[in-house]
TrEMBL record:
It comes from the Bacteria. CDD domains: SGNH_hydrolase (cd00229). GO terms for molecular function: hydrolase activity, acting on ester bonds. Gene3D superfamilies: SGNH hydrolase. InterPro entries: SGNH_hydro_sf. This is Lysophospholipase L1-like esterase. SUPFAM superfamilies: SGNH hydrolase. The lineage of its organism: Bacteria, Pseudomonadati, Bacteroidota, Flavobacteriia, Flavobacteriales.
Length: 404
């Protein structure tokens, strides 16, 4: 176990043995750099160099789930460290952010005990809940295995170009970088290289933005890179990892006091069977039983891992009640166009609140929905269906319970 060193050498120790002290860093959260090493990834590189079994985990959104940078990073690691037995756990799910990731990381990723976790949430609102959701991932990872290393990966979407062009961090990133500073997490910025090539007129960010002759076409939609874009991501990752492969002190990572109050460190998925449903709910057929596995999103889509089991009703006035502990309750549900589904929520016999289960796209979405935050403690919440458009259903799956 790492121990604190005497105060007489504290100043020098911060620079010589940063992980030994879990030193907090003072990088400017409002600016961005390609690589901020902080405490580094020494445990990861030690296992690679020793030729041991190494499991690499990924959590984030669609850029990581189906994105080639993930596959290309594994391919490079296998070629660079051929003696190691390198496998991966793909726990990224498209269109999801760290608030959902904090609830499911134990089930979908940590149960596989990864040695290394790449977290990619900037495009998918890494600043959700002012960074408290993202921060909640870190203690969960280190409680599961204190030797697991963590790296924040910053991908880019078109709306981020102006900020990154000026060396500024993005709106979501300014809430992620303080977490990286506090916990000593390495962060790697993919966007700066993309913007550099754009400024040099060697790249078209979104197909159709400008003539593409002899240029790299980065994406079709302004967010999801084509293979050439993923090659850029891989190259930035590779040179960053090579730059720090001999940096840092191995040993368990210590968990400091939280940076903020009510971080999502106790977030979890709660099975639907924990709720008591009224009479006119039916079980939903979600297809064949498929266990969550090392490639959960590629082989299970998002539906099975989202709901696990689900119930549905088409009858107004039907309800369910759940007892839970924490400060925030979420639902996995089918979301529809605004006004199609409304629920009345009463917690602890308090005043009722009306929620519209509207999707972000205006179309049917299998998604998650968080209610308003309340005081931490033991609660009883009743949810009643009060409005339902013709032909629609209220479908509920597992619950998202956030505690710290």
């Amino acid at each position: 176990m790492k121990q604190l060193i005497p105060l007489s050498i504290l100043f020098f120790g911060i620079f010589l043995f940063p992980k030994l002290l879990n030193a907090q860093y003072i990088y400017n959260p409002k600016t961005t750099e390609e690589l901020r090493t902080r405490s580094g990834l020494p445990n990861f590189f030690k296992k690679l160099k020793e030729g041991k079994d190494v499991k690499v985990g990924y959590i984030g959104g669609s850029i990581t789930n189906g994105g080639l940078w993930r596959a290309k990073s594994i391919e490079w690691l296998k070629n660079e460290y051929p003696k190691a037995n390198i496998t991966q756990v793909n726990a990224a799910i498209g269109g999801t952010g760290p608030e959902y990731g904090a609830c499911r990381i134990q089930n979908h990723l940590l149960n596989h005990n990864p040695d290394m976790v790449f977290i990619e949430y900037r495009v998918n609102n890494g600043g959700a809940y002012k960074g408290r959701a993202l921060e909640g991932l870190i203690p969960q990872i280190w409680k599961n295995n204190p030797n697991t290393e963590i790296c924040f990966i910053y991908t880019i979407s078109k709306g981020m170009i102006p900020d990154i062009s000026e060396g500024h961090q993005t709106n979501a990133g300014v809430n992620m970088e303080p977490v990286a500073n506090h916990y000593g997490i390495t962060s790697i910025e993919f966007g700066l290289e993309v913007v550099k090539l754009l400024k040099e007129d060697k790249l078209v960010f979104k197909k159709g933005d400008s003539p593409a002759k002899s240029k790299i076409i980065f994406s079709n939609d302004g967010t999801h890179p084509l293979e050439a874009g993923h090659n850029i991501y891989r190259d930035v990752l590779v040179r960053s990892l090579k730059a720090i492969e001999n940096y840092g002190t191995t040993g368990p990572n210590l968990i400091p006091k939280p940076l903020k109050k009510n971080i999502f460190s106790g977030a979890s998925l709660v099975p639907i069977k924990k709720a008591k449903f009224s009479s006119k709910w039916k079980d939903v057929d979600l297809g064949d039983e498929v266990a969550i596995n090392d490639d959960l999103t590629d082989k299970n889509g998002g539906i099975k891992s989202l709901f696990v089991k689900a119930k549905k009703t088409e009858t107004l006035g039907e309800s369910f009640t759940i007892k839970w502990d924490g400060f925030l309750l979420g639902l996995t549900a089918l979301l529809e166009e605004k006004g199609d589904i409304q629920i009345e929520v009463i917690t602890d016999e308090g005043p009722s609140k009306i929620y519209d289960l509207k999707s972000r796209t205006g179309k049917t979405q299998s998604k998650y929905y968080f209610l308003n935050e309340i005081g931490a403690g033991s609660h009883t919440t009743t949810v009643k269906l009060i409005k339902l458009a013709p032909g629609k259903i209220l479908q509920i799956g597992q619950f998202l319970v956030v505690d710290n």
